From TrEMBL:
Keywords: Cell membrane, Disulfide bond, Glycoprotein, Ion channel, Ion transport, Ligand-gated ion channel, Membrane, Transmembrane, Transmembrane helix, Transport. NCBIfam families: P2X. Belongs to the P2X receptor family. Pfam families: P2X_receptor. PROSITE patterns: P2X_RECEPTOR. Coiled coil: none annotated. Gene3D superfamilies: atp-gated p2x4 ion channel, atp-gated p2x4 ion channel domain. PANTHER family: P2X PURINOCEPTOR, P2X PURINOCEPTOR 6. This is P2X purinoceptor. It is found in: Cell membrane. May act as a modulatory subunit rather than a functional channel. It catalyses: Ca(2+)(in) = Ca(2+)(out). It comes from Apteryx mantelli.
C-alpha cells in the first residue's frame, strides 16, 4: 500500500514538473505589453502636451540652435601670439636733457611676447655713485633728531640704504639718517603730466594664430591680401576694419573703460582678450576673432638702471623709475563640426525626458487629481490566484 502511494506521488510530482518546464519554455516566446488607460482629463492632458512641447523646445532651441548639440567641439586650440609696437617720442627731463625714445627704450621686455610693458612716464635720478648721503625725508624710518636714532648697520625700512650711525641735515627743515647707498638718493618728484604722452598714438600689431588639432584646422587674424602697404596704413575698427590686426594704444585704453591721460600718469594693466568661435560647418572665411579689452589694475611701475664709467674710472648709474601700461594678451576659443555621435546623445537625452514627462503626468493623475482613486482602480488590476479545491469545499 505504502509503495503504491509513493509511486503515485512520484508520478504526480514528475507530471507537475514537466508541466512547469513546458510552461516556462512556452513563456520564452511570449510578448508582454503595457496596458494603457485612456482618460478624458483635460487638465492632465494639457499638462502632458505642455511638458512635451517644453522638451521639444529645449531640444530644438537650446540644444541644437544655441548650444549646437549636433557638433563635436574642440575647446583647447594651440595658439601663438606675436606683437610689434611702433612709435617715437621725445622727452625733456631736468638734469637729463632731451631724450629720444623708440621701441628699444619704452618696451619691456623686448618685442614679440604676449605680455609687455609700455613706458608712459618716468622719474630719472642721474649720476648716482656708491657712497654716503642723507636719506630722503619721505622715508619715515630715516627721519632723526640725534645720532641715537640711526643705529649703525641697520637698513632703513622701505628706504634706500644702510644707516651709518649719524644724523645729518637733509635740508634747512629736515634731519635724516646718513646712509651708505647709491647717492644722491632716488628722486621722488613725479611729473604732473605723462612724459611720453605721444604714446597714445603708438600702434600695436598683434599677429595671432590658432590651430584646432582635432579638426586639422588653423587660422590667423591677418587679412590675406596682396597689398604690401595694407598693414602699414590700416587701423583696427570693429565696424570698418575688423580684419586689421593693428591697434592704436589710445583706442585700446578707451575700450577698457579708461582715458589714456589718467592711466599713463601712474601706469596700469590692461587685458587683451582674443576669442575664436568657429563653426566649421560654414566656410572658413567666416571664422574670425573677436577682441575685447578690460582694465585689470591701476598704478604700475618698476625700476631699472643703466651703468657707466666716467673718464676718471668712477662708477655711476642713472636710475629710472618707469610708469606705464602693461598689456596681457590671452587667446581662447573653440571650434565645432557636425558629428553623428553628439546628435545621438542629444536625441537619447530628449527621449529620456519625454519618458519622464509621462511619469510626472501619471503621478499627477493618480495621486493629485480629485478623482485619483477612480483612476488608480482603472489603471491597476489586482490579480487573484484561483482557489484550490480544499478552500472551495469549506
Amino acid at each position: 500500500m505504502g509503495a503504491a502511494m509513493g509511486a503515485a506521488m512520484r508520478e504526480a510530482l514528475g507530471a507537475a514538473m514537466g508541466t512547469a518546464v513546458g510552461a516556462a519554455c512556452r513563456g520564452l516566446l511570449d510578448y508582454k505589453t503595457a496596458k494603457f488607460a485612456l482618460t478624458r482629463n483635460r487638465r492632465v492632458g494639457l499638462l502632458h502636451r505642455l511638458l512635451q512641447l517644453g522638451v521639444l523646445g529645449y531640444l530644438l532651441g537650446w540644444v541644437f540652435l544655441v548650444k549646437k548639440g549636433y557638433q563635436e567641439t574642440d575647446s583647447a586650440p594651440r595658439v601663438s601670439v606675436i606683437t610689434k609696437l611702433k612709435g617715437i617720442s621725445v622727452t625733456e627731463v631736468k638734469d637729463a636733457g632731451n631724450r629720444l625714445w623708440d621701441v628699444a627704450d619704452y618696451v619691456k621686455p623686448p618685442q614679440g611676447e604676449n605680455t609687455f610693458f609700455l613706458v608712459t612716464n618716468l622719474i630719472i635720478t642721474t649720476k648716482q655713485a656708491q657712497g654716503t648721503c642723507p636719506e630722503s625725508p619721505s622715508v619715515l624710518d630715516g627721519i632723526c633728531r640725534e645720532d641715537a636714532d640711526c643705529p649703525v648697520g641697520n637698513p632703513v625700512v622701505r628706504g634706500n640704504g644702510i644707516k651709518t650711525g649719524k644724523c645729518v641735515m637733509f635740508n634747512t627743515t629736515h634731519s635724516t639718517c646718513e646712509i651708505y647707498s647709491w647717492c644722491p638718493v632716488e628722486n621722488d618728484t613725479l611729473p604732473r603730466k605723462p612724459l611720453l604722452a605721444e604714446a597714445e598714438n603708438f600702434t600695436l600689431f598683434i599677429k595671432n594664430n590658432v590651430n584646432f588639432t582635432k579638426f586639422n584646422f588653423s587660422k590667423d587674424n591677418t587679412l590675406q591680401t596682396n597689398d604690401p602697404t595694407y598693414f602699414k596704413s590700416c587701423t583696427y575698427d570693429p565696424f570698418f576694419s575688423p580684419f586689421c590686426p593693428v591697434f592704436r594704444i589710445r583706442d585700446m585704453v578707451e575700450a577698457a573703460g579708461e582715458t589714456f591721460g589718467n592711466l599713463a600718469l601712474l601706469g596700469g594693466s590692461i587685458g587683451v582678450y582674443i576669442k575664436w568661435d568657429c563653426d566649421l560647418d560654414h566656410p572658413a572665411a567666416l571664422c574670425q576673432p573677436q577682441y575685447s579689452f578690460s582694465l585689470q589694475d591701476r598704478n604700475y611701475n618698476f625700476r631699472t638702471a643703466s651703468y657707466y664709467w666716467d673718464p676718471q674710472k668712477r662708477h655711476y648709474r642713472s636710475l629710472l623709475k618707469l610708469y606705464g601700461i602693461r598689456f596681457d594678451i590671452s587667446v581662447h576659443g573653440q571650434a565645432g563640426k557636425f558629428s553623428i555621435i553628439p546628435v545621438a546623445v542629444s536625441l537619447g537625452a530628449s527621449i529620456a525626458l519625454l519618458g519622464a514627462v509621462t511619469v510626472v503626468c501619471d503621478l499627477v493623475l493618480l495621486y493629485l487629481d480629485s478623482k485619483a482613486d477612480f483612476y488608480r482602480k482603472e489603471k491597476f488590476e489586482e490579480a487573484k490566484p484561483p482557489k484550490d479545491k480544499a478552500e472551495a469545499s469549506v
